[in-house]
């Protein structure tokens, strides 16, 4: 980006964004346990003040965990907001902290699944669903080797520029979501691991209804297509935000067997089962703020 194009961000309309980014930068210097404490308080403030998002989380948790009592469901919702509050504050660590600090804050589980695929020179797709540690996990892994992922630009141009630079500061190559799949296929077939996020409701286009917590959910069919086109092994990769600011755990699960099968509904169901299993292990950290069940089968009433 040229100096001339950068100069337009000095206009007063961008000052609020600069202040927010400056605040994030300062917070990123704090010890993580302190960020976690402040983030928990921020999350509870959002829980009290943001009735709309509180409603979305409550509906999602209530429908996905009907076996729990109302107080238990409420605890998950509140814990989710506390964890989300920390995510809002500690994202600056992944954006600006040193490589040494990022490595220090990370531990791995199931790393052998990833390392074996690398040793065998397999093409790799990391199935990285929307858990709260998602941002940190992708940037941490890009320290070690080139990676590729899909990027959706925010509406705010200044935030988009900063976010893009932060995410790509190591070896993470960002491909805009509107680009054709060939941009991802080409790099994955060259042996660059794809950090792929497949689990948001983007409407009926390129989706099928596959069960998620027993509920029909509009689910992208792109993952099995990519796996077939690249002859890649699909390894679930979930990043957990550890409690009390103890860091992050990147958990690699065993590769999906016999995937893809050639049946889009069976493959997306298999993918959703994997995501659901992780969400049941740490229900407070799946991104319940998203309207995961917004798109409904014809004739079915709205969720939210």
β-strand number:
9
Q: Strand-residue fraction? A: 15-25%
C-alpha termini separation: 41 Å
**Order of helical and strand elements:** HHHHHHEHEHEHEHEEEHEEH
User: For the largest beta sheet, what order do the strands appear in spatially?
Assistant: 1-9-8-2-5-3-4
Alpha-beta classification: alpha/beta
Helix content: 40-55%
Give the overall pLDDT as a whole number. 94
Strand count, sense and closure of the main sheet? Answer: 7 strands, mixed
Number of helices: 12
**Which shape, going by the Cα principal axes?**
globular
Please compute the radius of gyration using only Cα atoms.
19 Å
Overall number of structural domains: 1
Runs in which pLDDT lies below 50 for 5 or more consecutive residues are none
Description:
It is a single chain. This protein is α/β, with parallel strands linked by helices and 304 residues long. The protein has one domain (3-285). It has twelve helices and nine strands. The chain has helices spanning 3-7, 15-27, 32-49, 51-64, 70-96, 99-104, 111-119, 134-142, 157-167, 182-189, 222-230, 264-281; strands at 106-109, 123-127, 147-151, 172-176, 194-196, 207-212, 215-220, 232-241, 248-252. The strands form two sheets. Strands 1-9-8-2-5-3-4 form a seven-stranded mixed beta sheet, with helices on both faces. The protein has a two-stranded antiparallel sheet with strand order 6-7. β6 (207-212) and β7 (215-220) form a beta hairpin. The longest helix is centred in the first third of the chain and has 27 residues, at 70-96.
């Amino acid at each position: 980006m040229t100096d001339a194009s950068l100069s337009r961000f000095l206009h007063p309309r961008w000052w609020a964004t600069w202040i927010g980014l400056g605040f994030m930068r300062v917070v990123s210097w704090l010890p993580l346990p302190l960020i976690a404490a402040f983030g928990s308080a921020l999350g509870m403030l959002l829980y009290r003040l943001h009735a709309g998002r509180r409603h979305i989380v409550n509906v999602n948790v209530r429908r996905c965990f009907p076996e729990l009592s109302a107080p238990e469901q409420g605890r998950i919702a509140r814990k989710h907001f506390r964890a989300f509050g920390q995510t809002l504050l500690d994202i600056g660590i992944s954006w600006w902290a040193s490589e040494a600090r990022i490595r220090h804050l990370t531990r791995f589980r199931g790393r052998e699944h990833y390392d074996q695929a690398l040793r065998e020179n397999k093409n790799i797709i990391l199935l990285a669903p929307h858990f709260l540690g998602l941002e940190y996990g992708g940037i941490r892994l890009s320290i070690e080797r080139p990676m590729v992922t899909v990027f959706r630009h925010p509406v705010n141009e200044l935030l988009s520029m900063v976010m893009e630079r932060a995410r790509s500061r190591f070896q993470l190559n960002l491909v805009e979501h509107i680009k054709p799949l060939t941009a991802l296929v080409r790099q994955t077939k060259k042996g660059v691991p794809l950090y792929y996020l497949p689990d948001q409701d983007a409407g009926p286009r390129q989706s099928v209804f596959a069960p998620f917590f027993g509920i029909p959910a509009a689910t992208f069919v792109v993952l099995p297509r990519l796996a077939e086109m690249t002859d890649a092994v699909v390894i679930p990769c979930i990043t957990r935000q550890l409690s009390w600011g103890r860091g992050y755990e990147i958990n690699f699960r065993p590769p999906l067997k016999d995937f893809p099968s050639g049946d889009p509904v069976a493959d997306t169901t298999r993918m959703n089962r994997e995501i659901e299993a992780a969400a049941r292990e740490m229900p407070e950290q799946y991104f319940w703020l998203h309207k995961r069940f917004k798109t409904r089968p014809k004739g079915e009433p709205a969720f939210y």
